[in-house]
Design brief:
By secondary structure, the protein is an alpha/beta fold. It is built from 6 helices and 8 strands; from the N terminus they run H-H-E-H-E-H-E-H-E-H-E-E-E-E. The chain starts with a helix and ends with a strand.
Amino acid sequence: MPRDSSSLEQLLENPHVWRGRAHAQTEAGLSSGYEKLDRHLPGGGWPQHSLTEILTEQYGIGELKLLMPALSRLSADDPVVPYTEPGWIAWVAPPFQPYPPALDAWGINLSRLLIVRPKDDSEILWSAEQALASGTCAAVLLWPETLNDQDSRRLQLAAEKGRSWAIAFRPATARHEPSAAALRIEMQADQAGTHIHVFKSRGGRPVRLHSIFSG
């Protein structure tokens, strides 16, 4: 049967009908400080107001170095959003004691740093969710023991509500687990440097980047 074009046009004129666009607008990202990575991230940088997951086989292979330029910018006295105070940078359950001289050398505003040490994994997620939704944290870093799909959705929604950036550090074994994160990357290090596999990027494509930085 031929389609009734007039009926279709009337339907499309209904304000309650959503019409997809060929190219959805991508929000500008927060520069990572690494041009090679920014070129492959939608918006030219880290996705803001959302959840990013960084997977590693072990901690200490450069995952914090990867974040330092962006975190320094977020905690600066001239913040990303003009006419606002710099946001707090919250660290929830880090598996080590942050070293202030090293953070200061990277340009992190230590007066805007918060360290939260919850008692158990449920409190890790609760603390991160509250910090993200508060509207006062520019970024929230967390090291959960586990993070299921529902928990990741809660973090994603909290980040959107508080206009904050959530960064969850997870083991490489979590790679095949479902997640609501906007960006998921896996880091590996060898004698040649630190390599990154972007295996989930909302609005982008998977990519492998070699030798983002050395050391």
